[in-house]
Specification:
The protein has 359 residues and is an alpha+beta fold. The protein contains five helices and 19 strands. Strands 12-13-10-9-14-15-17-16 form an eight-stranded mixed β-sheet, with no helix packed on it. Strands 1-2-7-19 form a four-stranded antiparallel β-sheet, with helices on one face. It has a three-stranded parallel β-sheet with strand order 5-6-11. Helix 1 runs antiparallel to helix 2.
Length: 359
């Protein structure tokens, strides 16, 4: 089953369909449709921050994960976005310095600042990140030389690389899947409107022994050198404050703004709507409601948990969502995402009409 929702991201999509239907009688249709697609891509690009995109957004033919032949927006962004600060701090040099943050999933789980209290917690649970002098072992996960301290566990901090670009394909008209797709560790979530890619949870220390530190806004450098998010940064401060993490995200906080485009074509908004957290969200964190940008459509919301990203995806993605046109050695993982769980809510988001949500 697939359901098309023309109004979700492009108000002019209906015009494009009408032009296509007239192709047999109007030999100017192809150029008109191309113009409409270009306009739609330009309108979508208008949601992005200044300098977030490194070239004009365009619309291209694409094949979706459900086998559909469709069209996708093509966005190109820098490996290190100029729209955000990608310099950390990440790993502190000593236990008394303050670094970034981490979502701990062992005993006493929660969101923590990487400060003296956190390293003491790690030591109490048998993890050795610091030597007797309090120096943290910092290692580049791409194979760089570790710091002078060498302990069983290490804080991971990759070296940035601004020499290449990333290319993103996102359906112009979302199509629902029969089953939702779980978004697990390092699953591809979407593209933030600051030009930074978004991934699911970073790998657990319990699994790898290394801690890939995040900065105060929930992002870090991948081993391939590009910066990416593991949080929706625009809604993170309230989560940090609730956790008692004494760090501040420098990104302007707006709990109701559109913050990203998910890889299935649905927009991700902040954690609130009309001043409150919505109470009718489905299992993926989405619902149909009126939006200032697109009218009454299905969209996701960030949550108030750590991390605050959608836990599953309702729609089909492009066969290749994320690539690098000029980074031959760039690793672009897609986690261990898989189908399951059934459609969200009452069968998923309907075709643009306000439904009886029933959830």
């Amino acid at each position: 089953m697939k359901t098309s929702i023309p109004r979700v991201v492009v108000p002019l999509a209906c015009l494009a369909l009408l032009l296509s239907a007239c192709a047999a009688v109007d030999d100017t249709t192809e150029s008109s449709t191309d113009s409409t697609s270009s306009t739609a891509a330009t309108e979508m690009a208008g949601l992005f921050a200044d300098e977030a995109l490194t070239s004009d957004a365009i619309t291209v033919d694409c094949t979706l994960s459900n086998g559909s032949e469709s069209t996708c927006y093509q966005f190109e962004v820098a490996s290190l976005s100029s729209a955000v600060d990608t310099e950390g701090p990440f790993c502190p040099e000593t236990t008394t310095d303050e670094g970034g943050i981490w979502v701990w999933d062992g005993d006493e789980p929660g969101l923590y600042a990487l400060d003296e209290d956190f390293w003491a917690l790690m030591e109490s649970q048998g993890f050795e990140f610091a030597d007797a002098d309090g120096d943290i072992t910092i290692v580049d996960p791409a194979g760089g030389t570790p710091s002078s301290s060498t302990t069983e566990n290490s804080c991971l901090q990759a070296t940035p690389d601004d020499s290449y670009h990333l290319q993103v394909l996102i359906p112009t008209t979302p199509e629902l899947l029969d089953e939702v797709t779980d978004l697990s560790v390092i699953s591809q979530i979407g593209l933030a409107f600051d030009g930074v890619t978004i991934f699911g949870d970073a790998p657990s220390v319990l699994d790898t022994g290394g801690l890939p530190a995040l900065d105060a806004c929930g992002g870090h450098i991948d081993p391939s050198g590009y910066y990416h998010w593991h949080f929706g940064a625009e809604s993170i401060q309230s989560i940090l404050d609730a956790a008692g993490a004494n760090v501040t995200c420098a990104i302007e906080q707006d709990n109701e703004a559109p913050v990203a485009l998910a890889y299935d074509g649905y927009v991700i908004y902040g954690s609130e709507e009309d001043g409150a957290v919505p109470t009718d969200l489905d299992e993926c964190g989405g619902h149909v409601s009126d939006t200032e940008e697109f009218g009454e459509v299905y969209h996701y919301h960030l949550s108030t948990d750590a991390s605050n990203l959608p836990l599953c995806r309702v729609g089909a993605t492009a066969e290749v969502t994320l690539s690098s046109p000029d980074g031959d050695n760039v690793a672009l993982p897609n986690g261990t995402a898989g189908g399951g769980g059934g459609a969200p809510g009452d069968g998923g988001p309907p075709d643009g009409e306000a439904p009886d949500q029933g959830n």
